[in-house]
Amino acid sequence: MNRPPLAARSWRTALQRPWLRMLGAAAALAAVVFTLPQLRAEAAPTIPVPAADESGLAGPSAVAVFAGGCFWGVQGVFQHVDGVLNAVSGYAGGAASSAHYDDVGSGNTGHAEAVQITYDPQRITYGRLLQIYFSVAHDPTQLNRQGPDRGTQYRSAIFPMTQEQGQIAKSYIAQLNQAHVYGAAIATRIEPGKTFYPAEAYHQDFLARNPSHPYIVIHDLPKVAELQRVFPDAYRPKPVLVSAVAAAK
Question: Quick check: is 29 in a domain?
Fold first, then answer.
């Protein structure tokens, strides 16, 4: 496969190169801090709760799918949200045949790195998940990029599982734009009717398994810290892990 030049690829991909993995955690972090712009997460904005939210759901669980840049951080944030039963990294927006990391990284598959969130609707609502998504998990004003990562595979997108979810998301985006809580318009796309495909096993629970990885330290751990600060009532210290959910089945 023809890979794009290094300058056009994610810095995260560069950080996975064998020569860098051989460095100690401290040396790797020093190398990244020296060579990359300081793109640490900023304080999350205070945003209003959604004016519209889902009606009472009778079942024990429901599913939401969000894309907001690198799935390591989005998954890591929602694994710390009380009421979330599972959060799986994967791909959404393209075909099953191209739902693979190397293919998606080309930016030509239609896929976005996404996270499928299974939640207990008796403990947390879809609207509350959206509030965390727009405030803490990523910057919704960035178009086809997120932090150091560039390309449509890093776009901000919501993949509603039901018509009601789509309506809630559309209404909330309009509400936030009208409130002018950001310095720019929200770039988040709503893409209904798309299938979610789980990512490779080595991407699952990446933040929890690699807390000293340079990318995680710089870009993702600050998001978890902001979750605890902005949503203390929704934060839980112990994350729900894909590996634990799978072992319990």
Answer: yes
Q: List, for residues 126-176, the tens digit of each pLDDT value.
A: 999 999 999 999 999 999 999 999 999 999 999 999 999 999 999 999 999
Q: Which of 32, 67, 70, 87 is catalytic?
A: 70
pLDDT digit string (tens) for 32-46?
A: 343 333 344 568 888
To the query of whether residue 70 is one of the catalytic residues in this protein, the response is yes
Decide: pTM greater than 0.90: no
Three-state SS for the chain is CCCCCHHHCCHHHHHCCHHHHCCCHHHHHHHHHHHCCCCCCCCCCCCCCCCCCCCCCCCCCEEEEEEECCHHHHHHHHHCECCEEEEEEEEECCCHHHCCHHHHCCCCCCCEEEEEEEECCCCCCHHHHHHHHHHHHCCCCCCCEECCEECHHHCEEECCCCHHHHHHHHHHHHHHHHHCCCCCCCCCEECCCCCEEECCHHHCCHHHHCCCCHHHHHHHHHHHHHHHHHCCCCECCCCCCHHHHHHHC
Tell me whether residue 67 is in a domain. Answer: yes
Q: What is the pLDDT of residue 44?
A: 87
Count: domains in the chain: 1
Domain region containing 90: 6-248
Residue 193 lies in a domain: yes
The reply to whether 1 falls in a domain is no
Percent of the chain beyond pLDDT 90? Answer: 78
What CATH number should be reported for the domain holding residue 44? 3.30.1060.10
Q: Is the pLDDT of residue 181 over 50?
A: yes
